[in-house]
Design brief:
Helices cover 14% and strands 53% of the residues. It is mostly beta strands.
Length: 153
């Protein structure tokens, strides 16, 4: 019985390892403010966590919105370009991700049917950092752009 338990544990470990190797987005990412160019009216995502959730991906974000209010958001879906609901996001209620290549995603955030922000996530070739560029519209209708650099934890 011990041998089966050990074998099952090893299979799970290597399956998880293969999944993480297959998707460089997965993991915990911390904002590197010194390397980022954030807009004063935009949200600041301090920590972003991508985890496998069955055949989906779950993206959890902790940050501060443009008014200084702390938020926690969660999105679960696929990188298929379809809208999936997001909970707790100060900018919108739907988000979609599209896989461009192994290290690149594009995303769209919406409030209802209105596009609020668009952007791109690029994981560096060494997998140690990622850069998120986004164009958004704040609550007053003002457009702004951000470049956020994250370090993998």
């Amino acid at each position: 019985m011990k041998a089966r338990t050990i074998l099952a544990t090893l299979v799970c470990f290597f399956a998880a390892l293969a999944l993480y190797a297959a998707d460089p987005q997965l993991g915990t990412w911390k904002l590197n403010e010194s390397k980022s160019k954030l807009a004063p009216s935009g949200a600041k995502n301090s920590t972003v966590v991508y985890t496998a959730a069955g055949d989906n991906v779950k993206v959890t974000v902790d940050g501060v919105d443009g008014a200084g209010k702390v938020f926690h958001s969660e999105w679960t879906g696929k990188y298929d370009g379809k809208d999936y609901p997001v909970k707790g996001d100060p900018l919108g209620d739907m988000r979609s991700y599209t896989k461009v290549d192994a290290n690149t995603l594009t995303f769209i955030g919406k409030q209802g049917d209105k596009v609020i922000f668009t952007g791109k996530v690029v994981v560096a070739a060494d997998g140690k950092s990622r850069t998120v560029t986004a164009d958004a519209t704040d609550a007053q209708g003002k457009k702004y752009s951000t470049t956020s650099v994250y370090d993998k934890q």
